[in-house]
Amino acid sequence: IEVLFSDKRPFFTENQSIFDDALVKNESVFYTRRIGGPRDDNGAAGDIEAAVKVIGSAGPVNYGLFAAREDDADEVGRSYYAGRFVIPRGKWLLGTQTTYTERPFRNRTALVNAFNYDIKPGEVWRLVGQFMRSDIDTDSGDSSGLGSFNAIQYLPNDRWQFEFSLLHYDDTLDVNDMGYLRRNDLAEWYLSAVHDWTDFPEDSRTASVSMRAFATRPSNTDGVRLMDNISVMLGQNMRSGSDISLRINASLAGYDDLISRGHGLVYLKNRFNGGLTYSTPKRGAWRKSVGVEVIQEGYEGWGMGLQAGLTWYPYEKLNLDFSLQPRQSRDWLIWIVDEERLGSYSRRNITGRVTANWFPAERHEVRLNAQWLTIDAEGRQGY
User: Against a cut of 0.85, is the pTM above it?
Assistant: First the structure.
């Protein structure tokens, strides 16, 4: 699965909300990091020759128009176009978005159309959804794909929130020329419940408690059942400024159709993961956190990890974060491309991070970040 990165370039972040149609977390037909991303010919960063964005309204319609062109767009650069139209009303919203991408080096064009809705039939109910179609034109042939997401939300009060959704992506749906989709070939239902407790007496050490519970049942479009997932997260905020969080996750036995990189299905047993984290209140110029986790990431082995964090506030507008996360696992399961088989490794790794955040003036921020990772792994078993 491709890694998703957020965009930091002001032109692609300011006044960009009109193009936001992401109903499934982080997924959208317009992903600005594509523009100026790795070139099709050599993988180096593409240079942007020009870009323009127009945002406005005409009567009841809000609109956004976008176009960008990379250098050498006639040969290796790419051209991007997007149009978004939204009709908002008090109890409902309808929107459409169309993107078009030209990639001459690959002799490829991609047209994506999306339609989304947001309807509030009552005070406690909400219906949201999106339908997508992709049309890809290449020298080797044309393809089209469909996708849909529909959800119903129930919010009886400000403490409870429930959601049930259905998702279906064809195995030919492809929006990633200009958008971001974690994967296609997926049919999934999702159920979540959120509850917040805030009515603690004033003399209680607890300020609030939150609970998040999620369950998913995925399969691919061939009907192969993938691993079901159940997660529960609890968080407790104390009046002193400290907080405690607990996470429990279970991935139930099923198939993984991605880990082998297209070489077949892999059946995995139940996997369980959990973690507990505690953060102290700020005392003087320091705040600390500690955590422990138990993991299963392979076929049958267990592992564990620790986390230690320290934040230093030398003065109000500057803070420095230090964190260290050692982890050891007896069963790190990965696909070995050259050997076309799975390998189980005994792994030890340490992740470290140092971050400095400085706010010299209003609307000004300077951030420096250093991160490193060390891994020592020994092969145990091949499959």
Answer: yes
